[in-house]
Write a structure and sequence with these properties.
The chain is an alpha/beta fold. The chain contains 13 helices and 14 strands. The strands form 3 sheets. Strands 1, 2, 3, 4, 5, 6, 8, 11, 12 and 13 form a 10-stranded mixed β-sheet that branches. A two-stranded antiparallel ribbon has the order 7-14. The chain is globular. About 0% of the residues have low confidence.
Length: about 325
């Protein structure tokens, strides 16, 4: 059977300390290409991505919004991405952020095994599983997937059953538009599209036809899902709040992290991919230039955190983060 290729498309701003783990993890589950757009970084993210580009690991491009006077970073990048060879030659497009880790229980845990198990569908939309602070106040340079273990329960409360999705999408003429959470299907193909959830069940037609970015996640975690480390540590959350958001600039506030501090369950499923991740990470860090850039980015992240903690404008925000982390 033909082995498929998978291209990840993403936007990045000030994610330097976390990039290598995420790329190593993605490579470990079978991602073959990366198309990464950076947005005005000041923590050496762009330099790390440039080095990865030099090494042939990713394709790194500045986001066109840098000269367009636009804040529509995701929309612009996803409009530009299809023009590039990495996108054009891929069998599947995977639009995820670098705090999102796809996990599959099928076969060897790779994307190939997942799509093969479903007879190579057009789309698989995976429900997110939000991981919270887990009482981690301080930023530590280490694997995010090992530091943050507390999350939402896979069984949602009846009053809040909806969760966002991210999608693995076959690059065909059935897709009218690629977007951040799910594609838009050409209406001509509504009745023939093969679109499944993380349990391998067909998505309801109402979801296929509308543009909703999430769905009732009850019973949708049986085969695969998306670990979303949207907060990481309290200190990193402070830096994220200062950075802003690539989708909606004013979205990041105290309610953002309070609503996403999942803590009612603990899952370690992702440990099944730990050896593969570590092997890929060791390969990346065997390049001295890349390893040095990573260390400098870690120091830049720490310096940014200390600067913000001493800034009167962020004093109240930091106190609320501390209270939430320890709560």
């Amino acid at each position: 059977m033909k082995k498929n290729t998978f291209c990840v498309v993403t936007c990045v701003k000030n994610e330097g300390p976390f990039l290598l783990e995420w790329i190593a993890y993605c490579k470990g589950i079978g991602v073959t290409d990366f198309l990464i757009f950076s947005n005005d970084c000041d923590d050496l993210s762009a330099e790390i991505l440039d080095r990865l580009d030099d090494l042939g690991v990713v394709r790194h491009l500045p986001n066109p919004t840098g000269f367009m006077n636009s804040s529509q970073h995701h929309r612009t990048a996803l409009t530009y991405a299809p023009l590039h060879k990495e996108f054009q030659r891929a069998d599947y497009i995977v639009i995820i952020d670098c705090d999102e880790f796809i996990f599959s229980k099928i076969g060897d845990g790779t994307l190939q095994s997942l799509v093969t198990s479903l007879d190579e569908p057009d789309i698989i939309s995976l429900s997110e599983l939000n991981f919270g602070f887990g009482h981690n106040l301080e930023f530590r340079d280490g694997l995010v997937t090992q530091q943050f273990r507390r999350s939402r329960d896979k069984v949602p409360p009846p009053e809040k059953p909806r969760r966002g999705v991210k999608s693995i999408v076959r690059r065909t003429d059935k897709i009218k538009e690629f977007s951040n959470h799910r594609p838009v299907v050409d209406p001509k193909f509504f009745n023939e599209i093969k679109w499944y959830d993380g349990s391998g069940k067909p998505m309801p037609m109402r979801f296929v036809k509308n543009h909703k970015r999430g769905i009732n996640c009850q019973g949708r975690y049986e085969k695969a899902w998306l670990n979303h480390y949207t907060l990481r540590s309290g200190e990193s959350m402070l830096a994220k709040l200062e950075r802003g958001d690539a989708v909606r600039q004013n979205r990041l506030d105290t309610q953002y992290f309070k609503n996403r501090d999942g803590k009612e369950a603990e899952y370690s499923d992702i440990d099944a991919n730990l050896d593969a991740t570590q092997a890929e990470l060791d390969r990346l860090k065997s390049d001295k230039t890349l390893a040095d850039l990573h260390e400098k980015s870690v120091l830049a992240h720490k310096a940014k955190i200390e600067k913000l903690k001493s800034d009167p404008k962020f004093k109240t925000l930091w106190q609320e983060i501390v209270e939430t982390v320890h709560g």
